[in-house]
Amino acid sequence: MNNFYLSELYIYPVKSLGGISLQQAELVETGLKYDRKWMLIDEKGVFVTQRKYFELAMLQVGIDAERITVTHKKDPAQSISFSVEENTGLSIPVSIWDDESTGLEVSKLLNEWFSDFMQMSVRLVKMPADARRLVDPRYAENNEIVGFSDGYPCLLISQASLDGLNKKLEVPVRMDRFRPNFVFTGGEPHIEDSFGSFYVGEMLFSAVKPCARCVLTTIDQQTGEKGQEPLKTLAGYRTINKKVLFGQNLIHQGSGMIRVGDEIRLISRKPTV
């Protein structure tokens, strides 16, 4: 019998910028508190990510006393911060993939700072508290909602899955290439594919859809440089229906605290593909 334990916990307050490692986090309706609560948009209101703009990997996010700080990893003098409540009151239509939602402009100063960094016109927006962006109804169980993440409240990956991948690579990669919320120990590589419903501590989750991986995984989060790996190697043994799969998208019930060290207790399993 495998024992599974939560070993790492991450949030990514600004979509596609550097994540924050935590020892505990609050689970709210949209996922972990502050996770993908903010994002950058272009002049048309379309979300901006590392998939196209690799340099975003160089922006690290921190949070302290209800303030978000964004700092350049290679030049800490380039830094700016803002309150989690800050906004101008301007509501802007925004697009994330096929979803239409709404963002609140955070500040003109932040728009200028990010535009200077990216050398293009962008704005930073925050998801309004009353926004109701629905999880894909094909996978939702109870009209679950999500923030500015690609489509689901949380992402789970086992440490064994990364270890198994790294054994196949000439140069190992870090877990930050895959941007999980939860990392756990125990079991064989890709054991998470078999997870159905399960508890993390006292919080109930369902693994509803494997996570299809993209070019973002090929961007070194420490340098901003792009290569072919690990997507090339993953494609050789994790391609199913023309998608490269790694990790599981989750939905959940209720709210409460999640902590590193929490046991993951399986309620049900599903057939692996």
Q: State the end-to-end distance.
A: 21 Å
Q: How many distinct domains?
A: 1
Full CATH superfamily name = PK beta-barrel domain-like
Biggest sheet overview: 7 strands, mixed, barrel
Proportion in helices? 10-25%
Q: Would you report the number of β strands? A: 19
As laid out across the biggest beta sheet, the strand order is 1-13-12-17-15-14-19
Classification by helices and strands:
mainly beta
Brief description of this entry?
The protein is mostly beta strands. It has helices at 108-118, 159-168, 231-237, and strands at residues 4-11, 20-21, 24-28, 31-32, 38-41, 59-64, 67-72, 79-83, 91-96, 99-105, 123-126, 154-158, 182-185, 197-200, 203-212, 239-240, 243-253, 256-259, 263-266.
Structure description:
There is one protein chain. The chain has 273 residues and is mainly β. The chain has a single domain, classed as PK beta-barrel domain-like (M1 Pyruvate Kinase, Domain 3, Beta Barrel). It has helices spanning 108-118, 159-168, 231-237; strands at 4-11, 20-21, 24-28, 31-32, 38-41, 59-64, 67-72, 79-83, 91-96, 99-105, 123-126, 154-158, 182-185, 197-200, 203-212, 239-240, 243-253, 256-259, 263-266. The chain has a 7-stranded mixed beta barrel with strand order 1-13-12-17-15-14-19. A 4-stranded antiparallel β-sheet has the order 5-11-10-9. A 3-stranded antiparallel β-sheet has the order 4-3-18, with no helix packed on it. The protein is globular, with a radius of gyration of 18 Å. The mean pLDDT is 97.
